[in-house]
Amino acid sequence: MHWDDLKFVLAVGREGGLAAAARSLAINYSTAHRRLDGIERKLGVRLFQRVRSGYCLTRQGEAISEAALRIEAEILSVERQVIGTDQKLSGTIRVGTSHLLGLYLLPDMLKKFMQKYPEVRVKLSINDELANLSQSDADVVIRGTATPPPYLVGRSIAPIPYCAYVRRDLVRAAPQRPLSDYEWIGFDNNDPAAPLKRWLEQIVPGAKCRFTLDSAAGLREALVRGLGAAVIPCLTGDQLPALARISEAHAEPGFNLWILSHADLRRSARIKAFMKAMEEMITASPLVMASVSPE
Known about the structure:
The chain has helices spanning 3-15, 18-25, 29-43, 59-84, 99-104, 106-116, 168-173, 195-203, 216-224, 234-237, 269-284, and strands spanning 48-51, 54-57, 91-97, 120-126, 140-145, 152-159, 162-167, 185-187, 211-213, 230-233, 243-245, 256-262. By secondary structure, the protein is of the alpha/beta class. The chain has a five-stranded mixed sheet with strand order 4-3-5-12-6. Strands 10-7-11 form a three-stranded antiparallel sheet. The protein has a two-stranded antiparallel ribbon with strand order 1-2.
């Protein structure tokens, strides 16, 4: 089998379906369908079982997928080693980050970095899932986490304080209003341990949220539009004069802002320059390093 065929089988297995795999590979569905049919005809076996929920690997498909994973790991290791020896301040840096950081904190910092290093290109991927650098999804990850993957190296830059906010005109309308009387916007990202969820439960036990979002950036926008009160990180809430804090700020122990990369990549001149510059700008930002004390 050619490596391109192995990559295709890996994509279908990872995505659990042909349509999602086609999107990840930037090909159309009909091309992906023909590609899979051709691979299976050439091998004379079924690699996937078509079920209602998607595509499941057969026993033969699992064997192919395991071999492809080993080959992929070797290829990515070689690529990282080659990039790591690159001492030119030029080329592309792929950066993975969350919606809040990518939309509201990093843009100005990235602009300054690219002005200083005009030969470096930055490709920003915004996703609230931690990028898998072992699969070469990104060269550098900047995000909040309590458990950075063990195969990454980097620095914990700062805690991420957060508190409850509401639009300021809603506070002025009822300045002594108890927190339980606010209409609350919930954070629902399928993680019961999420700090935003825990802090809301602590300050308003049993808060009933008629409106929920699975995105912290979405919470911020809902607050601006006056849909209710919500818990968001201070580094984005304090940016907006229209919002007011209505609780004390809190920093979750162990949940910090990290800048991470693969060990093989940190020898690259552009990766080193990028990580150093971003760490300096983030630690100099009053939004990130603000006190966790209430207003």
